[in-house]
Amino acid sequence: MNKFLQRWTVFAGLVVVWQVAGMLAEDPFFPPPSDILTAAWEWWVLEPENVTGHILPSIGRLLSGWAIAAVIGISLGLLLGRSDRAMEYAGPLLVFMRSIPPPALVPVFLLLFRGGTSMQLATIVFGVIWPVLLNTVDGARSVDVTKVDTSAVFRIPRHQWILGVVLPAASPKIFAGLRVSLSLSLVLMVISELVGTDNGIGSQLMVAQREFDYTRMWAGIVLLGVLGYGLNTVLLAVERRALAWQPRSRDEQHA
Amino acid sequence: MSNMLEVADLGHTYGDYEAIGGLTFTVRAGELVCVVGPSGCGKSTLLRTISGLIEPSRGDVSLKGSHLAVVFQDYQRSLFPWLTVQGNVEFPLRSLPRAERRVRAAEALEWVGLGAAAKKRPWQLSGGMQQRVAIARALAYRPALLLMDEPFASVDAQTRFELEDLLLRVRREHDTTVLVVTHDIDESVYLGDRILVLSGSPAKLVADLEVPLPAERDQVTTRTDEAFVALRSKVARLLNVGGKQTLDVEKWAAAERESLSETVSTSS
Lengths: 255, 268
Description:
The structure holds 2 protein chains of 2 kinds. Chain A is mainly α. Helices cover about 80% and strands about 0% of the residues of chain A. In chain A, helix 2 packs across helix 10 (about 215-240), helix 3 packs parallel to helix 6 and helix 6 runs antiparallel to helix 8. The longest helix of chain A is centred in the C-terminal third of the chain and has 37 residues, at about 160-195. The radius of gyration of chain A is 22 Å and the shape is globular. By secondary structure, chain B is α/β, with parallel strands linked by helices. Chain B has a domain at about 5-30 and about 40-65 and about 180-265. Helix content of chain B is about 40%, strand content about 25%. In chain B, the strands form 2 sheets. In chain B, strands 5-6-7-3-8-9 form a 6-stranded mixed sheet, sandwiched between helices. In chain B, strands 2-1-4 form a 3-stranded antiparallel sheet, with helices on one face. In chain B, a hairpin with a 2-residue loop joins strand 1 and strand 2. The chains are: A mainly alpha, B alpha/beta.
């Protein structure tokens, strides 16, 4: 409990400072947090159409884009990571593609998919696949020689080698990539919704800004913060379970 | 007695470095043979060619029976930390039905005295216990030949004695054919029915010695037995212990690097 207080004190303090400053300044661009929270509550929680029409589609795109990127990134990464030759051919291409800022491709995808969900998914998938893919390659390459030898001596079948040895050995790095990708997914979800669509949290930010409803705009930003925080917390919990097998430093001394 | 392993004129070169030069020997069924030689004399290359991890440059390795198992020196890296002890022992048995896998793993863990540790993770066990898990995994696989690469070099002396006796017991109880590669002369005499003395490099067979000791061995009495002491001195003389170092360190390091890269590319 003490630690909880310690962790949130700075956060709460800043909110209080903003509240007082906002009430004193009465600036329409910077409404106090109490107004923002009220707006967020009325707009995002009490309006069922907003939940089904904007929040759920946004979360749906974010999660499916991230999941598609994860599946492609992990499978491709495992294969590339275990083949030096494939990496020699594909390496420069991967590094180049990763260097392209994903928002720069929004116009391309707009043309290709004429807006809508497929364009948004393409933006998210293209933007977030790289951390997963490159981390998986890195993890797959790091399987130590004794495990490679052990697997070869016991002549385990190829699928067991990939799924039973390479995948778990790479999983700590894969999870690190998945976490980076998840927060990137949120960014790209918002960016992809700023143009070419009339639903989603991102589009509502633009609508609120155009209608000079700054309190509602801030409410959208708060919602995105909460969403990002929540998703990251869930993924961390999953990661902790999935990687529970990792030796903890205290136990390692025993060996 | 039939031959379990026949090695004929086996040679291996890395580039222009000859690691083993024409080895010929056999291992009979149920026998425990120790290969002893100085560090860097090509013992590891020998083990890797026998186990099929690298293709020898020349010569033949023929094994009676379809599969062999290897116990590596580095048990920490050889065991899979994401599997339980039982999962590790079942690892090479995935092609068998689940129930049979369970039975075999439980049985093999009993043999090495780790029946109670089945649900633990390997890294929760001591070093000696981890190596016992690796031995159980190899035994559960029912190999025609059990290869061991410096199996007890990474544990303390007390544990080492225990593991040596454990190996002698399980191989007697289960009639396992074993080839142990070691640089430790005492260990080779204590464990072996027969000792192959290598000198190198390139590794050449200097002597093939029968061990004139009874099958039942004991850490205290066997090691003071006259026959033990005599054979130990003989092997030491053959290996020229205390003599001039003949190993070319740079060549050896290059060969080692080569052998590592070779493994990675063959098994990926």
